[in-house]
Specification:
The radius of gyration is 27 Å and the shape is globular. It is built from ten helices and four strands, in the order ββαααααββααααα. The protein has helices at about 25-45, 55-75, 80, 100-120, 125-150, 185-215, 230-245, 260-285, 310-325, 330-335, and strands spanning about 15-20, 20-25, 165, 180. By secondary structure, the protein is mainly alpha-helical.
Length: about 350
């Protein structure tokens, strides 16, 4: 049975002191999500032949640049909070006071991933495909921080799972009666993201099994959900979820071009970009992905520690070699013999 409502958390849980340091629970949620995504991505890359720990190496670039991107996006979509008379000019850099946008973190993180992949020799799209399920898990975990911070909620509701928001919370809409319940958008997005993990993995598994069936029948497996296709599906899934969630979100300080919230515009761009990636990469790369590494950048022992690279493609290559006719030593000797009979020559 669902509770009468989702209670508001005690403000004491939003932060705590550890000596001279102030630890924010939201930051811990983000950190837990990053760790989970790195672990999942590393396991998936190792299964495809990447060196152990390479996901962590790339995350060292992606995470800090992603945080910067998240802050810049938030500031640009909430300019009224950071401009005007009486506003501290340095307010936009005080990230610890809150204000991080997930779409901004995706943009900044993509730049960091590109840099990390260039350094490590990994294909950008190979990393993106391995990251997609873990990214949804990280976003689901991070949304717990929104609950603690009393943010990311929707319009008032009378549903039994309505969210209680403290009247002194910064995002509590002015003029709303105390005790009003709101749609728990943080919870909706958590559920949407976790369902997305299951959907992406299910589709990926079905495609792998189809390729295995083709291989068993003597055919050649296709590209599957590689070369960025799985990441494209992630963008479509996440963009669809955010577009309808943002349509009922209360964010009174968000700038809204043409009356449409900025995040809805960005969600539409994410959906279109995801479709473009699936279509364009499907045409550019119909072949299997033989390696997650850029040619010439593979590690010395590519099959060590975590599986093989391009399993379907390598199986197909092995089958092709097995089917090639072999030549015995006797046949080779006959082939090298002169076609003229020595005994009959003069």
């Amino acid at each position: 049975m669902l509770p009468a409502s989702i209670p508001s958390p005690d403000p004491v849980w939003s932060q705590f002191s550890l000596g001279p340091l102030t630890i924010h629970t939201y930051a811990l949620c983000l950190l837990a999500g990053i760790v989970a995504a790195a672990w999942i991505t590393d396991r998936r890359l190792r299964a495809r032949g990447a060196a152990p720990g390479i996901a962590v190496d790339i995350a060292m670039w992606a995470v800090p640049i992603g945080i910067v991107g998240a802050r810049i996006y938030h500031v640009l979509t909430h300019l009224d909070d950071f401009t005007g008379p009486g506003v501290d000019a340095w307010a936009w850099v005080r990230i610890w006071e809150g204000g991080n946008a997930l779409f901004g973190s995706l943009l900044g993180g993509a730049v960091g991933v590109w840099i990390g992949c260039r350094i490590s020799g990994l294909r950008f799209w190979s990393f993106a495909d391995a990251l997609a399920p873990g990214l949804l898990v990280a976003q689901a975990i991070g949304r717990l921080g929104n609950y603690v911070n009393q943010e990311l909620f929707g319009v008032p509701t009378t549903l039994p799972w309505g969210l209680e928001i403290r009247s002194d919370a910064p995002m509590f809409p002015a003029g709303t009666p105390e005790g009003t319940l709101f749609h728990p958008l943080f919870l909706y997005e958590m559920i949407w993201n976790l369902i997305g993990v299951a959907v992406l993995l299910l589709i990926e598994r079905r495609v792998v099994r189809r390729n295995e069936a083709l291989l068993a029948d003597g055919g050649t497996p296709g590209a599957g959900l590689r070369w960025g296709r799985l990441f494209g599906l992630y963008l479509i899934w996440y963009g669809l979820g955010r577009s309808w969630l943002e349509s009922i979100r209360i964010d009174p300080t968000s700038d809204a071009p043409l009356g449409v919230p900025a995040n809805i515009w960005t969600s539409g761009v994410a959906i279109l970009l995801g479709i473009a990636i699936v279509v364009v990469q499907g045409r550019r790369h119909p072949e299997p992905e033989l390696s997650v590494y850029v040619p010439g950048r593979e590690p010395e022992d590519e099959d060590a520690e975590g599986g093989t690279v391009g399993d379907d493609a390598k199986k197909a290559e092995a089958k092709k070699v097995e089917e090639e006719p072999t030549v015995t030593k006797a046949e080779a000797a006959d082939a090298d013999a002169s076609p003229v009979d020595p005994a009959g020559s003069k």
